[in-house]
Specification:
alpha/beta; Aspartate Aminotransferase, domain 1; 14 strands; about 45% helix; about 15% strand
Length: about 450
């Protein structure tokens, strides 16, 4: 008698495997492979001593140590929430009261990814619409797919999401009677994952003004994912979209300590409109009864003793050197290839490479296979777009300089160019054979 198979939920069946999993596995299983794919932080820069010293001081006081090892609250350690609020406001040059914010409007989470998932759970039903940039953060696309949520996209240019196109899309949805389905506008507005682009100061205000036009009929929330904001190494820090939301009504500001400090502490946070706090905490309580309490105590102390801010400054310098190395390598290896261009980020960890249209850099394309043979790997840019295969650009790639050394960045770009040339020679050979056969 056979064993009956499991019947999985619709949500489980709709949840795709994360595209990045394959590239992480490749990097781990093949030590000779130079990974320009995974968005890992720089391993050599992790604040081992600062965290060790901080934890030693925490546990030197038995009462503090016991509190850190005990359960925390679902919303998060109060002292840390207060510091998060003040920190974000300091970045924007405003006071919390100017944005109608208190520490009660701050939630601490198990990384920013948990926040993205929980917010999707409390705000979105199957068939609802989320509008994102194109390209956008592909891991969040998986979250939305699991909830059977429609993703519509707005193209980007060097100033980020094109707000005129956003306004046009919302007008079309309104005329089609679908405005009520639009719940969320998702933007990674600082040194975007995957493209490295940032939303310009003017468009930040325009974005908020656009959603305000519909406030009497449809409350559209902006989810501002500022995960890479503090990794700025060039130019001025632009005020967040949240800083223009003076009534705390339209913008959710999501941040993380993973990228600017240490991902092993696995702590994110959000500043939210007050009406979202209770439903979010009800759902979060079902998940975890509160995120890692020890990590929260450590982060609170790192901010208090100045080690966190010192780490951010140091890491930004490290990434500037790596960014420069990648841009130098791309200029050296690809400047002679017509139709090739790339972004020049002012911060973050990513460069977006666009190759000639006849080069398929997608997951099923020849370039990726050839790159693996050459010993280098990237993330196909196709993952950052939505739509059926055949409708998405296939000549783009996300390159990360997060964890690769400067030497490996130079060598990796050299290997990438060799792979491109091999693919081009193969295509030309096929053309010659086809011509001869005709």
């Amino acid at each position: 008698m056979g064993l009956a198979s499991f019947s999985f939920s619709g949500r489980s069946n709709r949840t795709p495997e994360s595209p990045i999993s394959y590239f992480m596995e490749q990097a781990i299983e093949n030590p000779n492979l130079i990974s320009l794919a995974a968005g890992l932080v720089d391993t050599d820069s992790l604040p081992v001593k600062a965290v060790a010293d901080t934890m030693a001081r925490l546990f030197a006081d038995p009462q503090t140590g016991k509190a850190a090892l005990q359960y925390g609250t679902t919303q998060g350690y109060t002292l840390l929430r207060e510091k998060i609020l003040q920190h974000v406001c300091n970045l924007d040059g405003v006071k919390p009261e100017q944005l109608n914010l208190t520490a009660q409007d701050v939630v601490v989470s198990t990384g920013s990814q948990q926040l993205l998932y929980l917010l999707s759970e409390i705000l979105l039903d199957p068939g609802d619409i989320v509008i994102t940039e194109a390209p956008s953060y592909f891991v969040y696309h998986s979250v939305l797919a699991s909830g059977d949520v429609r993703v519509l996209t707005v193209p980007m240019d060097e100033e980020g999401m094109q707000t005129e196109e956003l306004a046009r899309l919302l007008e079309q949805l309104d005329r089609a009677g679908e405005l009520h389905r639009v719940k969320l506008l998702y933007v990674v507005d600082y040194f975007q994952n995957p493209s490295g682009r940032s939303l310009s100061p003017e468009r930040r205000k325009e974005l908020l003004n656009i959603v305000r036009r519909y406030q009497d009929r449809q409350r559209i929330l902006i989810l501002e994912d500022a995960a890479y904001r503090e990794l700025r190494f060039e130019g001025d820090d632009w005020r967040s979209i949240k800083s223009h939301d003076t009534g705390n009504e339209f913008v959710i500001y999501a941040g993380t300590f993973s990228k600017p400090c240490a991902p092993g502490l696995k702590t994110g946070y959000a500043l939210l409109p007050s009406e979202l706090i209770e439903p979010l905490l009800r759902l979060k309580g079902n998940h975890d009864f509160g995120s890692n309490n020890l990590s929260q105590y450590v982060l609170n102390a790192l901010i208090e003793n100045g080690a966190y801010h010192e780490q951010v400054r140091y890491l930004a310098g490290v990434y500037r050197q790596k960014r420069d190395a990648m841009l130098e390598a791309l200029e050296r290896e690809f400047s002679d290839l017509p139709g090739t261009h790339w972004t020049s980020p002012r911060g973050g960890m990513f460069v977006w490479l666009t190759l000639p249209e006849d080069i398929n850099a997608g997951p099923s394309g020849k370039l990726l296979k050839e790159c693996i043979r050459e010993g280098v790997i990237y993330v196909p840019g196709e993952f950052g777009h939505v739509g059926k295969p055949g409708t998405r650009p296939t000549n783009e790639a996300r390159l990360s300089y997060g964890d690769a050394s400067i030497e490996k960045i130079h060598e990796g770009i050299k290997r990438l160019r060799r792979a491109v040339e091999t693919v081009r020679r193969g295509e030309k050979k096929k053309e010659r054979v086809a011509v001869a056969a005709s």
